């Protein structure tokens, strides 16, 4: 009679025999998700405030003769400090939460910029024009907030320690190698059409940015996670993979900024913001799912609700950016002040000769 309860007790004490990740390296904790999400939201909010402070400073000094007068203002330096603080918060968030959760939260920056811009920077508006001009922005903000809530609620909840061994293991796994092969081929094809065929379509440029950005966020998470572990006492800086990831992070971020700069010279900033957010978020989530296996162990309902949150956030960002004012489409790439004197002198001579020859031709025609 005593053997049955004891056998049942032994069965209940048996450890689980299967797990998606090694025990001790993964902790299923909503607390870490919350910390990462709060850090990302805080970082994006602070960055938005910083950018609008600097924009406000530039607007006030637009008529100044000194082109660098903003360096002498406390407002601009406060904006720079807040920007660094916000970027540090976003960087730290990657060490706590899955990549698939942190990347879509950049919609918070778009929401904050829209609200701050309407309140503090936009020109005065009449009550009768309020709905016509700002209803899309408010609807977009509401949708983006709903989408963000769904993202935080149904985000993947697996947390793997960013040790050198784990990162190396993921780096040489066949799914990621296959993904990298596809991404490199696609990047080379897009770059060929962009450079050789002059394919300056915004989709081509922002796809190049998104492909580089997916590698940026993958390496950022690795570097941030290894730094946090090192601060906690588990030193990871003696692994060569840390420095490989750090170099890749800096290189992809620099080239990403270069392509964004080229896109901003040809297209409106609101279009870049909406299309870039959608493409970058989609490709970055895919990279995180392949490299860090973010969705392993998640049920279909959570994955579908997370995807729904992404779609709602995409729609919200599109509506917010669609109502922004169009920028001035033309701006010379090279200022005439930067031209050498001999070049300007030659151009003036050519223009005079052309004018003289044209006048002679017209005079001859009149005589005929």
Report on the architecture of this protein.
The N terminus and C terminus are likely disordered. The chain is globular. Helix content is 73%, strand content 0%. It has 13 helices and no strands. The chain has 368 residues and is mostly helical.
Give the helices and strands, then pairings.
Layout: H1 3-12, H2 30-60, H3 74-93, H4 99-102, H5 107-121, H6 127-153, H7 164-171, H8 174-195, H9 202-231, H10 240-266, H11 269-291, H12 300-322, H13 341-367
Protein name: NIPA like domain containing 3
Family: Belongs to the NIPA family.
Keywords: Membrane, Transmembrane, Transmembrane helix
Question: Could you report the average pLDDT, rounded to the nearest whole number?
Answer: 77
H-E string: HHHHHHHHHHHHH
Alpha-beta classification: mainly alpha
How many strand units? 0
Shape: globular
- Give the CA-CA distance, first to last residue: 129 Å
Cα-atom Rg, whole angstroms?
Answer: 27 Å
Number of helices: 13
Proportion of beta-strand residues: under 5%
Task: Tell me roughly what share of residues is in helical segments.
Answer: over 70%
Outline the low-pLDDT stretches: 1-28, 326-344, 356-368
Biggest sheet statistics: none
Keywords:
disordered N terminus; mainly alpha; disordered C terminus; single chain; 368 residues; globular; 13 helices
